[in-house]
Amino acid sequence: MINPFLARSLGVCSLVVCFLLVSACSTLRSDFESPTVKVTGLRLLPSQGLDQRIGVDLAIANPNAQDLSLRGISYTIGIESFSVLSGVTSQVPTLKAYEETPVNLVVSANVLQFIRLMEQLGRTGLKDEVAYTFDAKLDFSALLPAMRIRESGSIPLVQKAQP
């Protein structure tokens, strides 16, 4: 049989440990800010059979006071609502505190989505610009949950005349 004093002491210690854990977790994310991602470049890479690979250069800014380690990134690039490029990588450098880190990704073309995009552009006609989206899931290796980031904009297809 357990001594009542020992049982009460264990109960109090358990409550104190739970309180400390909850306090520690709440302070862990109180000043955390989401990193920002910019697409800084696109380039064609040598194709492998029918698989056309494209290099995507990113700049990921870490606005926090601590370095952030990533386990990996999954990403998709859409053009006019069609997810035409996608990829994953576990080869991600540590995002240094208060710095912008260059990250190079390789994406593969989704041929079926690309055909659908071309079919739509053939039906609706080519515009002066096309809309794009860049979606990424950053999987942190610390106690932080995975984070989803989206950047969107438009790519001009016609150069505007200079006045």
Q: Outline of this structure?
A:
The protein is 24% helix and 43% strand. With 163 residues, it is of the alpha+beta class. The chain is built from two helices and seven strands; from the N terminus they run αβββββαββ.
Instruction: Identify the strand order in the major beta sheet.
Output: 1-2-5-4-3-6-7
Count of β-strands: 7
The fold-level CATH name of the largest domain is Immunoglobulin-like
Helices, by number, come to 2
How much β-strand is present in the residues?
A: 35-45%
Low-pLDDT stretches are: 22-27
Q: Please trace the helix and strand order, writing H or E for each element.
A: HEEEEEHEE
Helix residue percentage: 10-25%
The CATH class of the largest domain, by name, is: Mainly Beta
Beginning-to-end CA distance, first to last residue: 93 Å
Task: State the secondary-structure class.
Answer: alpha+beta
CATH superfamily of the largest domain: Immunoglobulins
> Judging by the overall fold, what is the CATH architecture of the largest domain?
Sandwich
Overall, the morphology is: elongated
User: What's the overall average pLDDT, rounded?
Assistant: 81
